[in-house]
Amino acid sequence: MGTSHQGTSASDGLFLGPPRRLGSALAERQGTGSSEGERAALQDAIALSVTDLAVLMDRVDGEAQDILGFQVAMLEDDALAAPALSAIDSGTPAHVAWSAALDGEIAGYEASEDDYFRARAADLRDIRDRVLRNLSGGESSRSPSGAVLVGEDIAPTTFLETDWSAGGAIVLMRGSTTSHVAMLARARGIPMVVGMGKLPEHAVMIAVDGGSGTVLADPDDLQRAAFNAALASDAQARGLEEQFRLRPATRRSGARIDILINVAGVEELDHIDLSSCDGIGLMRSEFLFRDGAPLPDEETQYRAYRRFVEWAVGKPVTIRTLDIGGDKPVRGLTPDGEANPFLGLRGVRLTLAREDVFRTQLRALARAAVHGNLKVMVPMVTVPDEITRCAALFDACVAELDAQGIAAHRPPLGIMVEVPAVAVMPELFDAAAFFSIGSNDLTQYVTASSRDDARVAALNDPSHPAVTALISKVAQYGRGAGIPVSLCGDMASEPRHLATLLDAGLTSLSVAPARIARLKAAIAEL
Ligand code: PEP
Ligand code: MG
Fold first, then answer.
1. Which residue has the higher pLDDT, 145 or 409?
2. What positions carry a catalytic annotation?
3. Which ligand is the nearest neighbour of the Cα of 328?
């Protein structure tokens, strides 16, 4: 009988296949024997790696291109190779010097308590291994199709270079649900489980249930038959749901529900048919701000926002202003050493404290607004004065752009309803053009249970009556006051919460793109 192992779900779906171990690429290599030779070898390997990445960048788009661009920028930064070059000058072979230098950097990221920082270690590991492969004239990291990639962590480029046409899955001993790869896996519908801790070394077949985070190593005939039956019924259910994908979401009564999508990167749009949704309900702009990379300037942000707006061809696109802090720190922007980051300088609190950064983003948004139906939304609002200040700053940015002769437009400004103070008294916030309920944060603040702590996961329940009562209250207030209300937390992507949300009076939901067909099918049943 195979052994069952429990990890954390990072992307749902089922897959059964042979494992492919993601190993370190430290290949056997004979040094050249001289410091000059080793210096040149390392510099050549770095240059070759930059070329590899440039070739790869031509084959991908959007988010994936940003990830590769980030790696190119790291490789082109002389500071990265400096410690390795000085070790080479003292007689260390190039591959040993490079590994040691990069391992030191990686250890720094890995030691972080935070998922987001740990996720950035994957980019560095990727860079380390690519250069090592090139130093030893090594093989490509391209993975075969139809395998379960198993390892400590996985590099974004390994994901991008993998041929997923015959399916596959990812099982990581560490990893993180907020990593670049987890985002890419969810967008592509590749099952992924992280935080496994351990898996039997010599398993020859692995069954992955990405939704529950369960992994079976070497299932026996009975277990395999059961898994295959689950796969078949899953495929059948997905097939039935697919018929709903391009139709409007309509209840049996004929009432129409708007289904919008949550996105983080432009790359995700490549896999989404615009006619399957009513627009973008949440674009999390903080994913443009990579920790450790320079802050994106106005032009970079403008180009990114414009692509979302143009993709939607007139359908609404709601871009959320920076929501960093809490579980999404960015070095140099978020404060170090906060005792309780979720209750600290996060979202609009931080952007109002860093007007320079906020102005750059608002200017980029005002410029992008010229190209389509853009709405802008502010996260973590707690008091009405925050809306007033954001609106005044936005107006000032638009006036400044006008004076400079740069085309700009002031889009409607709405707010996330995710702090209980707003959900309890929505009537204080009618300066907002719209409300979008953030059930992820609303749940953690109402139930006082962290959204990223598995030990209190049972308490962190969006169907707690106190949470659903607040959702109803906001929906009803919005209807009476003529303020549009949507919900964009993960709760909207779960069919089991659907009846509760629609009974609460919501008629607009923003969901994970991979859930569109499933939700529309569930709505048709209501
Ligand atoms: C939420 O809090 O529900 C939400 C949608 O925002 P985020 O998950 O990015 O905090
Ligand atoms: Mg939130």
1. 409
2. 180, 488
3. 1
Determine contact, residues 444/460, Cβ cutoff 8 Å: yes
* Residue of 280, 415, 416, 494 to mutate, ligand 1, most atoms within 8 A of C-beta: 416
Measure 361 CA to ligand 2 centroid, in angstroms. Answer: 19
> Distance, CA 171 to ligand 2 centroid (Å)?
27
Asked whether residue 487 carries a pLDDT value surpassing 90, the answer given is yes
* Sheet architecture: strand order including 19-21: 8-11, 192-194, 169-172, 148-151, 19-21
Residues contacting 107, CB < 8 A, separation 6+: none
Pick from 186, 263, 323 the residue to mutate for probing ligand 1's pocket: most ligand atoms within 8 Å of its CB.
323
The CATH code that applies to domain 35-136 is 1.10.274.10
How far is 176 from 180, CA to CA, in rounded Å? Answer: 9
Whether 203 and 147 have beta carbons less than 8 Å apart is answered as no
Q: Which residues of 114-145 are buried (b: 16+ CB within 10 A; e: fewer)?
A: bbbbbbbbbbbbbbbbbbbbbbbebeebebee
Pocket of ligand 1 (CB under 6 A): 282, 284, 323, 418, 438-441, 488-489
Here the tokens at position 51 are: 């070329």
Closest atom of ligand 1 relative to the 282 alpha carbon: 5
User: Best substitution site from 418, 422, 446, 471 to test ligand 1's pocket, by max atoms within 8 Å of Cβ?
Assistant: 418
What whole-number distance in Å separates Cα of residue 451 and Cα of residue 160? 29
- Report whether 410 contacts 398 (CB < 8 A): yes
Any idea what DSSP says for residue 218? Answer: S
Question: CA 357: distance to chain centroid?
Answer: 21
Do 3-23+142-239 and 35-136 show the same overall fold? no
Residue 33 has pLDDT above 90, yes or no: no
Report, as an integer, the average pLDDT of 427-451: 96
Kindly state which CATH superfamily the domain 3-23+142-239 is placed in: Phosphohistidine domain (3.50.30.10)
pLDDT for 146 equals 86
Has residue 443 got a pLDDT over 90? yes
Whose C-alpha lies nearest to ligand 1, atom 8?
440
Residue 130 structure tokens:
């690519």
Burial classification of residue 314, based on how many CB atoms lie within 10 Å of its CB (0-12 exposed, 13-18 middle, 19 or more buried): exposed
Please report the pLDDT score of residue 294 as a whole number: 77
Average predicted confidence (pLDDT) for the chain: 89
The fold of 243-524 is TIM Barrel (3.20.20)
**Residue 143 DSSP label:** P
- For tokens 């492969």, the residue is 133
Residue with tokens 């490079």: 98
Mean pLDDT of 384-405: 98
Closest C-alpha residue for ligand 1 atom 9: 284
By the 8 A CB rule, do 313 and 277 touch? no
Domains in the chain: boundaries: 3-23+142-239, 35-136, 243-524
* 500: its two tokens: 């509760």
Residues flanking ion ligand 2, Cβ below 5 Å: 418, 438, 441
